[in-house]
Specification:
- The protein is mostly helical and 232 residues long.
- The chain has ten helices and no strands.
- It has helices spanning 10-25, 31-46, 71-90, 96-105, 118-123, 130-143, 150-166, 174-195, 203-208, 211-218.
- The longest helix has 22 residues, at 174-195.
- The chain is elongated, with a radius of gyration of 23 Å.
- The mean pLDDT is 85.
Length: 232
């Protein structure tokens, strides 16, 4: 199940791994370890349901369909982080002072973001949190595009156009929103694969394709942008 269906049960996996570790010791296993094996066998035979999450016993629950695509980790701390780090690592050291100057001149008055920290944004991009990546997305066309090739500008333009839809807080017409979201996802993925094929192996890009279905079922992605582990 762990590999065939993509369902992970970390607690049971650690217990099963410990079981086989004890079995590998054979006669060298300690008394507490042999007692654990006996208890494990008794529970697995007499009370199998207690070994699994009770949610799996609900007829109407599907662990894959009923788990929303969590926007914070798959988008900001995934897709956006990959592209920001990739761009900043390729940026020539001689260009960094100009990037700092552009951040300093960037007017945040019309945006719902605090004042920028130019030196932090250019030096500590690998340690950004979600709100930092939002700042980069909002300022990129005015700060970073001047240092990009034409193909990379197309990729980042597609990303910056997609981001507002991902974090849209109110949806007036779901059908129209779905059409727009699917269109901008396809546009972004086209430019992504065209620019560099290495990204297709990243699971978080794959999750992007499930966002329309998740939004249709649960509503705006911003409603479940959370740090909670079960939604990652």
């Amino acid at each position: 199940m762990y590999t065939e269906l993509g369902v992970k049960d970390i607690l049971n996996k650690s217990i099963v791994d410990w079981k086989y570790e004890i079995l590998s010791k054979k006669d060298a296993a300690t008394s507490p370890e042999r007692e654990f094996l006996e208890q494990f066998t008794n529970v697995s035979i007499k009370d199998t349901p207690s070994m699994f999450n009770p949610f799996f016993q609900l007829d109407s629950f599907d662990g894959c369909l009923d788990t929303p695509v969590e926007a914070l980790h798959f988008f900001l701390l995934g897709i956006v982080k990959y592209l920001v780090c990739d761009f900043m690592k390729q940026l020539a050291p001689a260009d960094i002072p100009e990037v700092v100057a552009r951040y300093q001149l960037f007017d945040t008055g019309s945006l719902n973001i605090p004042s920028l920290q130019p030196h932090y944004l250019t030096r500590h991009y690998a340690n950004f949190i979600g709100k930092d990546f939002k700042v980069v997305l909002q300022s990129a066309p005015f700060v970073l595009f001047a240092f990009m090739t034409d193909s990379k500008q197309c990729l980042w333009s597609a990303l910056c156009q997609l981001a507002p839809l991902v974090f849209q807080t109110h949806i007036d017409n779901m059908n129209t929103y779905q059409d727009d979201l699917k269109l901008y996802i396809c546009n972004f993925m086209y430019h992504l694969i065209k620019s560099m094929a290495q990204w297709v192996n990243k699971p978080k890009f794959y999750s992007l394709g499930h966002l329309p279905q998740s939004t249709y079922r649960f509503g705006s992605a911003s409603l479940f942008a959370t740090n909670a582990g079960p939604l990652r």
